[in-house]
Specification:
- The protein has 205 residues and is α+β, with helices and mostly antiparallel strands.
- It folds into two domains: 1-30; 34-199, Umud Fragment, subunit A (Ribbon).
- The chain is built from two helices and 14 strands.
- The chain has helices at residues 2-30, 166-169, and strands at 32-36, 50-55, 60-62, 69-72, 81-85, 93-100, 105-109, 112-115, 118-119, 143-147, 152-156, 172-173, 177-189, 194-195.
- The strands form three sheets. Strands 1, 2, 5, 6, 11, 12, 13 and 14 form an eight-stranded antiparallel β-sheet that branches. The chain has a four-stranded antiparallel β-sheet with strand order 9-8-7-10, with no helix packed on it.
Length: 205
Amino acid sequence: MEKETLAAKIWDWVKTIVLALLLALFIRTFFIQAFKIPSGSMIPTLLIGDHILVNKFIYGVRNPITRKLWIKGKTPERRDVIVFIFPENRKLDFIKRVIGLPGEIVEIRNKQVYINGVPLKEPYVQHTDPRILPREISPRDNFGPVRVPPGHLFVLGDNRDQSHDSRFWGFVPIRDVKGKAFIIYFSWDPRTFHIRWRRIGKLIH
């Protein structure tokens, strides 16, 4: 009897652990996922060592393998900070800010972004290089004009002079957007190994 009771308890523990793992996997796949920021392309909005949560439900629910839309959600909006599958390597996830929407004309002149010919106000951007590179050398500071194709987005990093983004590799298919970054839940400086307490709980705008 005691052996049967012990076996039953072990089986109950196993079922509880398996169900908890399945629930966590379900939530991670379709609702909320944690990401760590490995590069400085989104400084000052996001720093290296920031740990963020991404809302995966806001733009709809998709098949994680085929990216086919199952449940429709919102369409990504300008200035949203999004996580997406990197077009040149689908094993990687990138994080950038939405700048150009489908059908819009995007142009960069001397570091200033224009949408349909109108200058875009970007208080979140930082420039670390005072040089203006001509388009013959690099698309960094002078780019376009280009029209964003239907079903795609034009994205840029906030650390504008140090970001590898749509200026260099093109547009992001909306179907490959995984979600919207919304909060920093933990942050630490990898150089000093100090926790950045003031950043914890900060909303991402």
